[in-house]
Amino acid sequence: MGTPEFPNLGKHCSVSDCKLIDFLPFTCDRCNQVYCLEHRSYIKHNCTKPNKHDVTVVICPLCAKGVRLIPDQDPNITWENHVNTECDPSNYEKATKKKKCPAPGCREVLVFSNTIKCRDCMIDHCLKHRFGPAHKCPGPKKLETSFSFMSLVNRNRKEEPKPNLTSASSSKWTTGLFNVASSIMASAEAGISKLSGETNQSQQTTRNGTGQSSGSGNRNGLVEQCPQCGAKFSSVTTLVDHVQKVHERSGNRPGAKKVTIDACPKCSRGFVDPVALVEHVERDHGGSSRA
Q1: Which single residue of 25, 88, 201, 206 has CA 20 to 30 Å from 111?
Q2: With a threshold of 0.90, does the pTM exceed it?
Q3: What one-character DSSP code corresponds to residue 146?
């Protein structure tokens, strides 16, 4: 078999009655046997697996879906798997119901070749009723304008359709915009004046509450805080009054603790701990504790 240069060239035909050496043999894609030119077809060599690559689809009578049969598998097993997994009887009516033209009195079945969608109502109709008057088309849907600006524009267009009144309409537009801008500026000025009045009132209240003795504390920007309730004061004088009026009255109660506050002789800042007062004088006032 073959030639001296190519000893493996060519193969024998697999048919028992042929056994011909073919230098260009054919391999069957189903039984994977080698055949010559004469026996290359499935019928000529009696192929044992002629349906290996065949695609067979059966329509399910319950759900109208296609069920593909596997060549090497029993059709009963394939059918049983379909019924138990993906069979849906409710799909039968949807698959078998034919779409018809919705025009009154027309029962023509709509297929690919006779279906046209109306450009206004976007509904499929047959060729006979493809125009709007034929199927009583309601026309395109109007855009709903939810903005008052668009309604104002439409109203102005209805009231003044003539082109010679453009100057009057523009003057009205200018007047309207000026009125809107004026109202916005007025509301802004009112808000600013209210805010400034509240600020001045709060500053005046603070000044009346602190007195002259808290001048050095305000200049230094110090804020005193009550060690018991956490209330903040602008000077140590107001803090002492607060402690005497609020906390010393409750000192007679059982379990109440009386707090003594020492004031700095330089900046009038209050301290509960005397050691903290000494450290403050040495650190901030150069170590002199004298007034």
Answers
A1: 88
A2: no
A3: -
